[in-house]
Amino acid sequence: MSQANLNGAVVQETSNERSVIANALHIVYEEFGDASNPTILLIMGLGRQMIAWPDDFCQGLADQGFRIIRFDNRDIGLSEKIDVSPPVSIPKLMLRKRLRWPIKVPYSLNDMALDAIGLLDALKIAQAHIVGVSMGGMIAQIIAADHSHRCTSLISVMSSSGNPSLPTAAWRINKLLINRPTSGNTAEVLAHTIKLRLAIGSPDYPPSNEYLKKRILKETQRSDYPIGFKHHLAAIIDNGDRRKLLKTITAPTLVIHGKGDSLVPADAGIDTAKNIAGAELKLIEGMGHDLPMELLPKLVRLIGEHTHSCESNLNKS
Known about the structure:
Number of domains: 1
Helix content: 40-55%
CATH superfamily: Alpha/Beta hydrolase fold, catalytic domain
Distance between the termini: 44 Å
Strand content: 15-25%
Structural class: alpha/beta
Number of helices: 11
Order of helices and strands: EEEEEHEHHEHEHHHHHEHEH
Shape: globular
Strand order of the largest sheet: 3-4-6-5-7-8-9-10
Number of strands: 10
CATH architecture: 3-Layer(aba) Sandwich
CATH topology: Rossmann fold
Largest sheet: 8 strands, mixed
């Protein structure tokens, strides 16, 4: 079965993946677990598709008694793409932001938060535990603050408060992140992406080149839309400092961050937890800016304990 989205592209629906209209966009999602169970909504990070949430991770949470929903953010994977003209220039946006000049972006992180809310609406889900990694963590924070009645709990993973005084990634990391090959040559894209993921990945749990090659090829064969990455990055640049917003969050919050994160240093996770009242902080030794297979059981356990505790408190009230 297939379905044309609003810009004419075709969304393929398998037995697991489905497409719905959310916030006036076609959003593709997938579920694990029983639909009658409490929901955990997973929001992926910058330029990454929903399949970057490992199946074992999703199934592990489903096995703990939850309905797990992962989805492609707008502009990435099989969800609807946003066409803008003229094209976004990340260096120009960064310069204007540094000079405190006004900037114009295709859409905001707040818009992406509304996509997630729209997905919950389409699936008739009143509340969910919101889990976000990296940029997805920023979106999750916005949901917890601005749509608190939809957020049972917040789990912010390898994300940040946006505090401009926090340490940032080394220039070599940012250069790798921004300078993705534009030739369309599969071998060049593959080599560059392997180099980037090894640079930002977990220092104590480095994946083999063969494993990374298999994962990256799976992703690019499913969808390859580098413009979406630029639009996501523009939304992050536009959003800026969220500390005032974080202080309004009342949902029970768990902040998880790797001590070995070279892209978003651990200080960012510490600052996130510091600015959310009552937030629990878990720093993980040897974890970088990825979800290594070796740490999935621990991540499932931490998130499961948090969400079960929240569900228990809800049942008591």
